Amino acid sequence: MSFGGIEFANPYVLGLLIFVPLMAWWYYKKQDEYIAEVRLSSTQGIAVAQSWKVKARPILQLLQLLAITALLIALARPQVVLKKENVHAEGIDIMLALDVSVSMLAKDFEPDRLSVSKLVAADFVEQRKHDRIGLVVFAGESFTQCPLTTDHNILRSFLSTLECGLIENGTAIGMGLANASKRLKDSDAKSKIIILLTDGENNMGYASPMQASNAAKKLGIKVYTIGVGTKGQAQGPVARRPNGSYIYGWQQVRIDEKLLQKIAKETGGKYFRAQDREQLKAIYSKIDLLERTKIETTTIRNFQEKYHFFVLLAICFILIQVLLANTLFKTIVR
Question: So where does this one cross the membrane (predicted)?
Answer without folding.
Answer: 12-28, 307-329
